[in-house]
Design brief:
Blueprint: H1 11-32, H2 39-52, E1 56-60, H3 63-73, E2 81-84, H4 90-98, E3 102-105, H5 116-125, E4 131-133, H6 144-154, E5 157-161, E6 176-180, E7 194-198, H7 201-210, E8 215-217, E9 220-221, H8 232-242, H9 246-263, E10 269-271, E11 286-290, H10 295-304, E12 329-330, H11 335-343, E13 344-347, H12 355-365
The structure holds pyridoxal-5'-phosphate.
């Protein structure tokens, strides 16, 4: 009998755990007879804000929309430049471009998160950039004091992309945090969803208008908005079945990361983060770096052992075909981000992964020269 595959995410195992709570949330929503912007969304927004330690949350239809609507509510105008990272989900940049903003990319550290020294140099070299969109990539939060210092030095309006880092010390340095409930995220719903969080009530009120056709009162459209509402159904499921489990799920991710780090022997492939990140990161992913030119070999070797891998991300954003017709700027040649695009490999990590499966991955990674 062959071994079952080791997946990057295992939604079927998750279902066996959350099933009863999800079905109860569905029944409650059905019985309420109210499906858009009602008590479930309001209740989940309060619970999420409390979980995060921020005053307000506004549910929207996706992580992309959360970033885009937050940037608009924070005043972004067409032609405004936004400093951001070339190593992220494409949605980070797409939010800027969809508003007519101009992304400016600066390099990352060798670990893939935006390099704040490079960001500082870019802001000095290209005066007048007011918006900043950092990403807490792979689950690891950029240290809050360093972010605050950069924001204050340059008077930046900062929206933090927290799509991968929910449950960590993120989203408190800028004016707002944007997050995603896409199924693979640490707080993943049964479909699309997202939220913006902030201590700024005026900003959140603006986001609540913008997500609902820009309505300031019923049938009064004060501005051109979006249809970007979190459903009552998703809010109920998130609040009842998923959010109460997030802390435990994050702890489980940390013990899996710990097991990888303790069992690691092969220097030909190296974890991007060490033990110092164990308690800080939400371990959305377990990123590694292969030696140059060896990524494809590793993907094939793990695949033949039944182990799924991911690439986060295989290209820097300015190299994406869609960017050919879009104005943007790069500060420098982005060498660290480019190296990661060709060497980064993500290993399975999710709350339902067993230690036996982690050990199978470690065994397939083998020792040096194997
Ligand atoms: C997933 C993700 C997004 C987009 O979220 P969606 O809900 O898929 O729109 C944005 N930024 C980062 C870093 C992400 O990982």
């Amino acid at each position: 009998m062959g071994l079952s595959p080791v997946l990057l995410n295992d939604f079927q195992r998750q279902w066996t755990v959350v099933r009863d709570d999800v079905l109860r949330a569905v029944a409650r929503t059905g019985e309420s007879g109210w499906y858009i912007l009602g008590k479930q969304v309001a209740g989940f927004e309060r619970a999420l804000a409390e979980f995060w330690g921020l005053r307000f949350a506004a549910g929207v239809a996706s992580g992309l929309d959360a970033i885009e609507i937050a940037l608009r509510a924070a005043g972004l105008q067409p032609g405004d430049r936004v400093l951001t990272t070339p190593m992220s989900a494409f949605a980070t940049t797409m939010a800027i471009v969809r508003l007519g903003g101009i992304p400016v990319f600066c390099d990352t550290t060798p670990q893939g998160l935006i390099d704040l020294d490079e960001a500082d140099a870019a802001l000095r070299a290209m005066p007048g950039i007011r918006y900043f969109l950092p990403v807490h990539l792979y689950g690891l939060p950029i240290p809050r004091p360093s972010l605050r210092a950069l924001i204050e030095t340059h008077g930046l309006i900062c929206i933090e992309d927290c799509a991968q880092s929910i449950g960590t010390d993120c989203g408190h340095a800028g004016v707002a945090a944007a997050t995603s409930f896409y199924p693979t995220k640490n707080l993943g719903a049964f479909g699309d969803g997202g939220a913006v969080l902030s201590n700024d009530e005026t900003l959140i009120e603006s986001i609540r208008r913008l997500r609902d056709y820009g309505q300031s009162a019923k049938y009064v459209h004060a501005e051109i908005g979006w249809n970007s509402r979190l459903d009552e159904l998703h809010a109920a499921i998130l609040q009842e079945a998923l959010l109460p489990r997030l802390r435990d799920w994050t702890e489980r991710r940390r013990s899996i990361a710990n097991r990888y780090l303790e069992g690691w022997t092969n220097p030909d492939i190296t974890p991007l983060f060490s033990r110092e990140a164990l308690a800080e990161s939400a371990w959305h992913l377990f990123p590694t770096a292969t030696r140059p030119g060896e990524k494809a070999t590793w993907i094939a070797r793990l695949k033949s052992a039944g182990i799924a891998t991911g690439e986060h991300y295989p290209a820097v954003i300015p190299d994406q075909p869609a960017m050919a017709s879009v104005p943007f700027a790069c500060f420098g040649d982005l060498p660290n981000a480019r190296r990661l695009a060709s060497t980064q490999l993500s290993l399975p990590i999710h709350p339902f992964l067993s230690f036996e499966e982690v050990d199978r991955v470690l065994e397939s990674l083998g020792a040096h020269g194997n």
